[in-house]
């Protein structure tokens, strides 16, 4: 048993059935107050089989203080999933075939209220995946994250397998996604809101790339995967009630081999939800409740200032032992970033980083460990609150196309068209830093 399994897990192995020796992918799905868990399971079952065996671990979960209505929904999901799994097994048996994919359910209805949430549910399932993969000697096999309200392209499992085979050094990856932006499943207002919210998600990552921030990636919980051994080396999944995906995936983005899968697609739900404090569902729900029709996002000025700062970082190494020179360096930066850095003890940290590095490249690497994705997000919030108020996401996206991609946008271009153009660019990776 690995050190991680001995020290970092919350439960012993929970699935009695032994893992198939050819298991290469385990998909983990947290399920809380989800009305269509079976739909997501069916989407995975409909995938073209990869060469390896696949397992799916569903973690139906709720807090010890959960409402009766949500516990009832979870029980309904549990019963429906069990029936569906039995039917799946029967259909393979009737056909005389061995299934390429096996489904298991873990039910945790009374998790500690302090920690209960999506992060803890993912951790429970991913830790179980570690037990199973280590038991068959597959430490480099893949633990994949999916959601109980998501769909996927039918090449999803094949694409994951092929990606990690082609990139044997990749510890983890993000996976391309697209929310539904039209249809009859929701009111048109929901689609209008999700268009703007996804536009914001893509705008933010590309704006960071415009600023030359080196670790700008999408971090969507239903659209990420990691190798079993890399998952353990980075300490596993956190127990955050929201934003667990952001913190988890950014543990890996500093690796030169972090990667992206762009030749398949996860389809997260567009429905409003208040299951988590922030995120897609919460944003859509808030917009509907407030009758807000415009989604606001961070001003381009924040990323212009960030770009100026990042361009000057190489100059830091030569002055990193001289506090007066560092203070003078701060005076050359835009006020927004200078104020933020000062408030975050920039001088002290630069000296400390310099004391622990012996050459410029090591200094830069360690510096970005301090000025990480979370600190960048804090800067953007600081700039928003003190310098540059938010503006409509459509205006921000137009700036992005002009400043980053060097493409003009016609005045008649709709928000949906802007999003569709960004989706295309994301798939072909047309960044011009």
> For the report, how would you describe the main beta sheet?
8 strands, mixed
Strand order of the largest sheet: 3-2-1-4-7-6-8-5
CATH class of the largest domain reads Alpha Beta
Mean pLDDT figure: 94
Instruction: Please tally the β strands and state the result.
Output: 10
CATH architecture grouping of the largest domain:
Alpha-Beta Complex
Structural class: alpha/beta
Please indicate the count of domains.
2
Name the helicity range: 40-55%
Outline the structure in words.
The protein has 433 residues and is of the alpha/beta class. It folds into 2 domains: 3-13 and 21-190 and 211-273, Spore Coat Polysaccharide Biosynthesis Protein SpsA, Chain A (Alpha-Beta Complex); 300-386, no CATH class. The protein has helices at residues 3-7, 37-45, 68-94, 118-135, 156-166, 188-210, 228-233, 244-249, 280-290, 300-312, 323-331, 335-343, 346-355, 360-370, 373-386, 393-403, 415-428; strands spanning 23-31, 53-63, 101-111, 142-145, 151-152, 172-177, 224-227, 259-267, 296-297, 391-392. An 8-stranded mixed sheet has the order 3-2-1-4-7-6-8-5, with helices on both faces. It has a two-stranded antiparallel sheet with strand order 9-10. The mean pLDDT is 94.
């Amino acid at each position: 048993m690995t050190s991680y399994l001995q020290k970092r897990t919350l439960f012993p192995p929970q699935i009695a059935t032994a893992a198939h020796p050819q298991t290469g992918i385990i998909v983990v799905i947290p399920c809380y107050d989800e009305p269509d868990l079976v739909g997501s399971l069916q989407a995975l079952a409909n995938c073209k089989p990869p060469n390896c065996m696949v397992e799916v671990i569903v973690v139906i979960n709720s807090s010890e203080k959960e409402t009766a209505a949500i516990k009832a929904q979870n029980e309904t999901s549990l019963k429906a999933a069990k029936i569906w799994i039995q039917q799946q097994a029967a259909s393979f048996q009737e056909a005389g075939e061995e299934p390429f994919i096996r489904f298991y359910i873990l039910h945790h209805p009374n998790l500690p209220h302090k920690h209960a949430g999506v992060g803890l549910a993912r951790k429970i399932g991913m830790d179980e995946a570690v037990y199973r993969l280590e038991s068959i000697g597959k430490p480099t096999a893949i633990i994949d994250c999916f959601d109980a309200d998501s769909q996927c392209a039918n090449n999803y499992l094949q694409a994951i397998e092929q990606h990690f085979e082609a990139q044997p050094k990749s510890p983890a990856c993000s996976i391309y996604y697209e929310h539904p932006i039209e249809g009859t499943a929701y009111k048109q207002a929901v689609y209008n809101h999700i268009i703007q919210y996804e536009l914001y998600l893509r705008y933010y990552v590309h704006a960071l790339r415009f600023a030359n921030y080196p670790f700008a990636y999408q971090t969507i919980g239903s659209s990420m995967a990691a190798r079993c051994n890399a998952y353990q080396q980075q300490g596993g999944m956190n127990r955050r009630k929201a934003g667990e995906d952001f913190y988890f995936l950014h543990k890996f983005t500093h690796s030169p081999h972090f990667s992206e899968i762009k030749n398949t697609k996860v389809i997260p739900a567009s429905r409003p939800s208040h299951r988590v404090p922030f995120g897609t569902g919460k944003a859509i729900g808030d917009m509907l409740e407030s009758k807000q029709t415009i989604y606001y996002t961070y001003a381009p000025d924040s990323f212009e200032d960030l770009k100026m700062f990042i361009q000057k970082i190489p100059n830091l190494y030569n002055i990193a032992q001289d506090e007066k020179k560092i203070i003078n360096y701060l005076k050359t930066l835009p006020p927004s970033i200078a104020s933020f850095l000062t408030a975050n003890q920039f001088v002290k940290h630069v000296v400390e980083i310099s004391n622990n590095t012996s050459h410029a490249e090591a200094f830069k690497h360690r510096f970005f460990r301090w000025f990480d994705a979370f600190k960048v997000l804090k800067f953007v919030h600081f700039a928003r609150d003190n310098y540059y108020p938010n503006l409509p996401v459509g205006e921000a996206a137009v700036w992005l196309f002009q400043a980053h991609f060097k493409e003009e946008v016609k005045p008649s271009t709709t928000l949906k068209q802007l999003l569709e153009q960004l989706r295309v660019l994301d798939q072909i990776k047309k960044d011009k830093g």
